[in-house]
Amino acid sequence: MSKATTIPGTDGQPRCRWCAAAPEFEPYHDREWGFPVADDIRLFEKICLESFQSGLSWRTILAKRESFRRAFSGFDFHEVAKYGDKQVASLLQDAGIVRHRGKIEAAIHNARCAVQLQAETGSLAAYFWRFQARPHRAAEPQTVSVSPESIALSKDLKKRGWKFVGPTTAFAFMQAMGLVNDHATGCVIGDKVAQARKAFKVPG
Q1: CA-CA distances (angstroms) from residue 7 to 14, 59, 187?
Q2: Phi/psi zone of residue 84: left (φ > 0), alpha (ψ -120 to 50 degrees), beta?
Q3: Given 26, 33, 45, 58, which residue is catalytic?
């Protein structure tokens, strides 16, 4: 991948080029992508949505995000962990989400894994933030789709029984949740993310 470049946003300020690909991307880029997250529900939601995105576009998933939230109890993994065959059958009929049996069943399975992980480590945040990118090791922004940390996270999650959590999925999760600041050099939001990361207290 070539070095990431910026493009003027709707206010004329430089932003990551990808956020101009669809109208809904700029708000997501400006308000969410890369800002550090310590909330377990949001972390679980994001890793689930990244799993559902596999083979699809983020635009598709973002457009369906509210429907996913309604369908999966707001991604409260303690609730999702209780889902059984009845809920799976209902989800397979829900046109508002991605109706892929394997991914639906994986989300429910991963919710059960998340409950166990939270019990073991105190919080999902404390666990996930162990894998944050080290500044001196991070690649140039948006030049890679995996990293040593995402490979390690994927390997450890799989060891714990999680599904649909390959290294690329793990890296996209890390980009979005602030475990790495992957905004392009010169992106106006990248500076804000850097400040937020500096002020952020790493859980654990």
Answers
A1: 5, 19, 9
A2: beta
A3: 58
pTM here is: 0.94
State the catalytic residue, choosing from 26, 50, 83, 129: 50
CATH number at 6-199: 1.10.340.30
Which residue ranges make up each domain of the chain?
Answer: 6-199
What's the residue count for the chain?
A: 204
Active site residue 105: no
Q: Note the maximum CA span of the chain.
A: 50
Condensed to tens digits (0 to 9), the pLDDT of residues 140-184 reads 888 889 999 999 999 999 999 999 999 999 999 999 999 999 999
Closest Cα to residue 162, out of 69, 51, 46? 51
Catalytic (active site) residue 83: no
Query: b/e map of 132-151 (b: 16 or more CB within 10 Å)?
Result: bbeeeebeebbeeebbebbb
Q: How far apart are CA 140 and CA 132, in angstroms?
A: 16
Active site residue 50: yes
For residues 35 and 25, what is the distance between their CA atoms, to the nearest angstrom? 15
